[in-house]
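The pair is quoted verbatim as follows:
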Amino acid sequence: MTTKRVLAALPIVLVGWIAVMALVMRFSSAAPAAVVLLPAQSLLANLPQETAILGLSGWALTVRNSAGVTEDLYAAGAWLVLPAGLTGCLPLTKAQKAQLS
């Protein structure tokens, strides 16, 4: 009985966690970067010129976070923008900060 409840709760927890991360990205500039999963080619074509791409693969686009980047990504066609580069409760090290700047 307990295993069934845990298995039933896992998708709810996962969706809730993703929603919280999306809200953090939308209303906060705490994350040093933003990630878009499964970016379409049209998204790349519609990005503003000043967007700093940190990484690109077939499954993720990572860009440097700056003022308005979340809105720009949604306007370009992103379906979900999540924070990247957060260390949880630990602050970024100097090496991590240097890598992102």
Summary: The two ends are 50 Å apart (CA to CA). Helices lie at 2-27, 41-46, 69-76, 94-100. The CA atoms of residues 31 and 87 lie 9 Å apart. The first helix runs from residue 2 to 27.
